[in-house]
Each structure stands twice: as structure tokens, then as C-alpha cells.
Amino acid sequence: MNKLLLNGILMALFAIIIASCQYKFIVEPIPPPPPPGDTTSFSLDIVPIFAEQNCTGCHPSSANLDLTADKAYNSITSLELVVAEDPSASKIYYYPLPDGNHFAKYTTAQSILIQYWIDEGAKNN
Q1: Cβ partners under 8 Å of residue 93, min gap 6
Q2: What's the DSSP call for residue 104?
Q3: What secondary structure letter does DSSP report for 97?
Q4: Is the pLDDT of residue 71 over 80?
Q5: Phi, psi of 116 (to 5 degrees)
Q6: Helix, strand, coil percent values for the chain (each to nearest 5)
């Protein structure tokens, strides 16, 4: 009887401990679409993403892709990594997505900014 009572108490304590665990989910804010007539700037909005995610650490030369500020646009377009107005076909968009194949990932907010930029025609602005 004592073993049964002891097992019951241990199970109750275990259940209380498990039930008391708290998880803090970080909800990343999603940037709103740019106002009509306004555009997403490559130099002000997109290039900083490459620096923030340390893309420039590997891509001043890796895979012939240079994502440093002064060469990023020419490198992306010459390697045909962007398909204007179609993010899903643009490797610069889908490859580093949070669920993509690349080891370095965009945040959700960053991927949305890149999507807006491509939807707007992927201009060098």
C-alpha cells in the first residue's frame, strides 16, 4: 500500500511540474505592405538584410555571389537569382526562407520585405 501511495504522489508531483512549464513564443511583427505609390528600396531595405543575416560573410565570393552593398544588385541579377514580380521563382527569396534549404535563414519579416521588393519589379533603387 505504501508503494502505491508513494507512486501516486510522485505521479501527481510529476504532472504538476509538467503542467507548470511555460513557453514564451516570440511573435515577430510582420511589416505592412508599402503604401500605394511607395516602393521597397533595395539599398535601404534589402541590402541591410544581407548584412544582418551575415550573408556577406560567405557571399563576397562564395558561389560567385557577392552580397556586399555595392555589388549585391549586379550579382543577384547577373546570376538570375531574381525573377521580377515572382518571388516563388526567385532563388534569392525562397532559398534562405525560414523553412528553406540554406543554413542561413531570413526572418519572417525579412522574407516579406524581399517578397514586396520582388513583387514591385526588383528594382535597383
Answers
A1: 82, 87, 111, 114, 115, 118
A2: S
A3: S
A4: yes
A5: -60, -45
A6: 50, 0, 50
Distances (CA, A) of 36 to 30, 56, 79, 95: 18, 32, 30, 28
Q: What is the pLDDT of residues 20-40, one digit of tens each?
A: 777 677 777 777 777 777 888
Position 123, amino acid: K
Long-range contacts at 29-33 (CB < 8 A, ≥ 24 apart): 29/109, 30/108, 30/109, 30/112, 31/109, 31/112, 31/113, 31/116, 33/116
Short-list 30, 31, 73, 67, CA closest to 50:
67
pTM surpassing 0.85? Answer: no
Euclidean distance between the first and the last CA atom of the chain, given in angstroms as a whole number: 78
Instruction: Report the pLDDT value the prediction gives residue 48, as an integer from 0 to 100.
Output: 96
Domain map (residue ranges) of the chain: 2-119
